[in-house]
Automatic annotation (TrEMBL):
This is LysR family transcriptional regulator. The keyword Transcription applies. Residues 289-315 are annotated as: Disordered. Gene3D superfamilies: Periplasmic binding protein-like II (3.40.190.10), Winged helix-like DNA-binding domain superfamily/Winged helix DNA-binding domain (1.10.10.10). Belongs to the LysR transcriptional regulatory family.
Amino acid sequence: MLDVRRLRLLSDLHRLGTIAAVADARSYTASAVSQQLTALERETGVALLERTGRRVTLTAAGQVLVRHTETVLAALEEAGASLAAVRSGPAGPVRIGAFPSVMRTLLPPVLVTLGHDHPALELTVTELDPALVPAALRERRLDVGLTSDYDIAPAEPDPSLDSVPLLRETVYLAEPASTATGSVAGVASTPWILATPGTLCHEAILRVCRDAEFIPRARHHADDFATVLALVAAGQGVSLVPELAATTPPAGVRLTALPVSRRTSIGFRRGAAAHPAVAAVIAALRQRRATGASADPGDPGRSADPARGPMHRQG
């Protein structure tokens, strides 16, 4: 019988690339990870790893076992979900990860609804960058996580996770109102406020500018959209912001709708969709979205029509 914990480590190694990275993700020592993988090789009776100096790669047998591991882990998750459904309705701890604009708008009323409809749930929310949510789900630090990407910069699918779509938002060009041009091409020579390199928000800006045939000149880097809009209002540059983050822009900011969308999905481990607690959170989020309700009476989740042209929002 193969040890599931060791199979997880092999899958982690395939995904992360080094034993040191696996050790860091699992809060183990590198030596402990190596020992567990060696024990897994003894269990299988075949070489799973190729060691060249300090580098470790998976053999053909290791690759085969990783593919089966994803199926095994999903089956175990599904079995746990089925048992939970037999035992009771939605109950127990549920750890939710969400990014700031969802935390401010969509999530608070959902938490109220869940607390009212399912008082046995123990809800815990953590603010987390969407890029960090998949790892938190895989490592069982979250049960449900809100992830996002852009239609022009789609995220790579994760074979260990499933998701359902939640909302689609228009992305806006944010400019100082006093110098607004109303188009991406019009700000080719203007300083930009960019997200941290390596994030999807940063990549989305680069691709929008590339389509307009220029490379943005960075003046500032900021990941919080409230900060981004404050810098735009102060005349420090231009940027892109999604609709949920642009419901109440500061005075002096002009927003122009672009034919670009940010997509938000509800993520969870493969096999966990039928778990009563996970299903309750998914249903509450989707119901809130389906009613068009949000924390703002203007429903910031509703996409503006880019065909309407520039959208002015000041004060």
